[in-house]
Amino acid sequence: MSRNDEQPGVAQDLFQAARTAMGHAHAPYSHFPVGAALRGAGGGIFAGCNVENASYPEGWCAETSAIAALISAGETTITEILVMAQNKHKIVPCGGCRQRLAEFAGQDTPVHLCGQAGIAETVRLGDLLPRAFQLKDLT
Asked: What angle is formed at CA 100 by the lines to CA 94 and CA 106, rounded to 5 degrees?
C-alpha cells in the first residue's frame, strides 16, 4: 500500500490535478464529487470530473472526462491513473471506467486510489480488471 504521507511526492501532480477537477464536479443528484487525473505517455496530465444530469445514465464519470481530455490532446496511452472522491477514504473506478481505462493503459499501469487526505492505496490496473478486452478482441 502506498500513502502520500509515507512517500512524499508520489503522484502529487496527479493528486493536485484531480483535486482541482473534483472541485468543478457537477453532482447535484448524488452529491458525490469525483476527480480523476491521468498521465499520458508524453508526460502530460489530463484531469476530469464527474458530470451528472437529470437523465442519470446520460451523465459520465470523472475518468471518462479525463480520457476525453487525453484523447483531445492527441494522446492515446495512459501511463498512470489517480482517482479521488470528496467523501471517501478511497474510491475505485467503476466497472465501465475500468474497461475504458484498460483500452488506453496496460495491465501494469499504476492506479492510485484516493480520498481528500491522499493516496490510500496503489494497485495495478490488471488487478482491478484482470480480463479486460481490447479492440483487437472485437474484430
From this structure: 105
